[in-house]
Amino acid sequence: MNVDNAITQLEFEWETNGFLGKLRSGIFEKEGCERVEKILESIDLGKQKSIDRRLVALTWYMPMFITWQIERVQEQGGPVRELKKALNQIHGTLEKFLDIP
Prior knowledge:
Order of helices and strands: HHHHHH
Shape: globular
Number of helices: 6
Radius of gyration: 13 Å
Number of domains: 1
Strand content: under 5%
Mean pLDDT: 94
């Protein structure tokens, strides 16, 4: 997937009806999580030496944000174990395409 399409799709996931938007309300949606994972896995940066600033803004914050929502999901009686598993998967995927120092 090209970067512009990925940005559009990730922006939706941060909105109220997207995976991350719902998570903000303590709602863990497995299908939404799988959508985000597919988007992240499909991003093709090719041999670019730099990454679009908006793409970075939409991705780097995800693991920290998801961690902060664990308590909310727990308060709603949601599947905390699944959320933690999703957090690890998303973090790993981000490491693959953003790299690590």
